[in-house]
Amino acid sequence: MAMQAPKGTKDLLPMDSYKWHYVENKFKELADEYGIREIRTPMFEHTELFTRGVGETTDVVQKEMYTFEDKGGRSVTLKPEGTAPAVRAFIESSLYNEAQPTKLYYFTPAFRYENVQKGRLRQFHQFGIEVFGSKEASIDAEGISLAMRAINELGLKDLSLNINSLGCPECRKKYNDALKQFLQENYEGLCGTCKSRFERNPMRILDCKEKKCKEITKNAPTILDYICDECKDHFEELKKYLQAMDIEYTVDPNIVRGLDYYTKTVFEIIYKDLTVCGGGRYDKLIEELGGPDMPAFGFAAGLERLIMTLDAEGLEIPNSSYIDLYVGAMGADAKIASLKLINNLRKKGVKCDCDHMNRSVKASMKYANKTNCRFTVILGDNELQLGTAKLKRMSDGEQFEVNLKDLDSIVELLK
Ligand code: ATP
Ligand code: MG
């Protein structure tokens, strides 16, 4: 039986890898501009990190984690998101003793046992940033500006930015009471999961994807009517900073986000109904996970969703994965010369390849065309004797005579 990849996973095939490089490079380039440095954390963690970090009442923890016992009897979980691991690393390595804020970015796979559908996989990939140590709304605004710019510069122009504030634990308590009062009379109509959320975390009910729960919460009170003055001021500052950077936004009081740790700012970036990026502030998480009382902000963007969207929009993605020069060889001596030539040219930064299939001249040309090589040259006894050869530009067939010893002029020609 032929083996198949597990449901909800995808191979990245060589003809598509340039798209990933393009998207990853864009995020990396901007992270560099913003003075954000990379962090890499393990693919799995102690399960408790996520039950505590992501929150026991979330879909991620209740339904979606890849949790298993290792051979030593420990419960471990494939990371469903990147924030809790980054916080764990920050605390474990005492990065809070360094100059603050600590600005981190990561690329990571994430694993969630979800219903597989368009833009929803079981292993997907995220670019994320986390900024620890500043409570200022300017951090939130800067993070949002990075996400908006990166996605914009990838070519997706019609982005909607939706923002909301979830307040601090005090505001949340007041709001949860009001929400419970509102939901009380429809309690029986809620789904099983939401019934269990009712006491522990009623706000999470607003994020339920079940139709009947959505219907019940349609006219629920909104958190923005319950946030305290400090949280309100923070939200107003965020808006001011966004305006200062010419970033348009919509306030959407229904954004809750799928993870429990958020406080104050939450936001989503949406492109044609698809959430491509989400994040916010989580001022209590570092302390919750055993670190000092330090505020934090972060977001994650889904790379599959972005690439899928770029494809669907037919946007041109620069492809620099093609070979500059393909060297064919007629005969054993020419093969040696061709290996030598490409070896020396590669040391000068030229992307080149030689024939490894014993191809005829015609077959070499066909191959070069098919694989989008920019130039080809065929070496034979004649070329070896004269020390010169003709480089053929594949786009228009024009030929250029070169001295095979004069590598620099070949490099120049291939530029
Ligand atoms: P959604 O509401 O779409 O389920 P989420 O709130 O679970 O998203 P986060 O946990 O904040 O999302 O993850 C950030 C981003 O990662 C999302 O905006 C999305 O682009 C992407 N993402 C989340 N889950 C998946 C998935 N199962 N498959 C592909 N991409 C995903
Ligand atoms: Mg989700």
Automatic annotation (TrEMBL):
Positions of the Aminoacyl-transfer RNA synthetases class-II family profile domain: 23-318
Enzyme Commission no: 6.1.1.21
GO cellular component terms, semicolon-separated: cytoplasm
Protein residues bound to L-histidine: E81, G82, T83, R112, Q126, E130, R257, Y261, Y262
GO biological-process terms attached to the record: histidyl-tRNA aminoacylation
Swiss-Prot/TrEMBL catalytic activity: tRNA(His) + L-histidine + ATP = L-histidyl-tRNA(His) + AMP + diphosphate + H(+)
Annotated localization: Cytoplasm
Keyword entries, A-Z: Aminoacyl-tRNA synthetase, ATP-binding, Cytoplasm, Ligase, Nucleotide-binding, Protein biosynthesis
Record carries keyword Transferase: no
Domain of life: Bacteria
Name of a matching Pfam family: HGTP_anticodon
Principal place of residence: cytoplasm
Entry GO MF terms: ATP binding; catalytic activity, acting on a protein; histidine-tRNA ligase activity; transferase activity
InterPro entries: aa-tRNA-synth_II, aa-tRNA-synth_II/BPL/LPL, Anticodon-bd, Anticodon-bd_dom_sf, His-tRNA-ligase, HisRS-like_core, HisRS/HisZ, HisRS_anticodon
Entry keyword annotation includes Zinc: no
HAMAP family in UniProt: His_tRNA_synth (MF_00127)
Subunit: Homodimer.
PANTHER family documented for this protein: HISTIDINE--TRNA LIGASE, MITOCHONDRIAL-RELATED, HISTIDYL-TRNA SYNTHETASE
Family listed: Belongs to the class-II aminoacyl-tRNA synthetase family.
Protein known as: Histidine--tRNA ligase
Native species: Clostridium magnum DSM 2767
Top-level taxonomy: Bacteria, Bacillati, Bacillota, Clostridia, Eubacteriales
Gene encoding the protein: hisS
